[in-house]
Design a protein that fits this description.
Structural class: mainly beta
Strand content: over 45%
Oligomer: single chain
Helix content: 10-25%
Distance between the termini: 42 Å
Number of helices: 3
Amino acid sequence: MAQEVDLLSMIGLKSGSKDTLEGQQLFVADARQKYAYEDNQRTDKVIGTTVTLQVVRDKDNPLSSHVFDLTTDQVLDPDNIIDKDVNIEIDDVSVWASTRRNSTYAEPRVTLHGKIVVE
């Protein structure tokens, strides 16, 4: 039987941290479309967008210049949102392992899932 797990608190993203991250001045450093897969093959159907966000540089902000990925079910045109200021709302967190080809070393990665509002 499936069990619901609160990943936000499990990886240490408590509600205060979530609020802090959502309250940052952010801009889109990169964006790419997310495609649907069928039988382990990528289809042409776009199902969302993966956006790389960067915290605006500010010498008084400890999160200044930090970069993170946020996936959204919103279908956004990457060319129209790169370098734009955005606000985010975090709904969920995914934790996964990233490995390089021909390597046995894995690096943990965290991807946030939520909504983006382009200013």
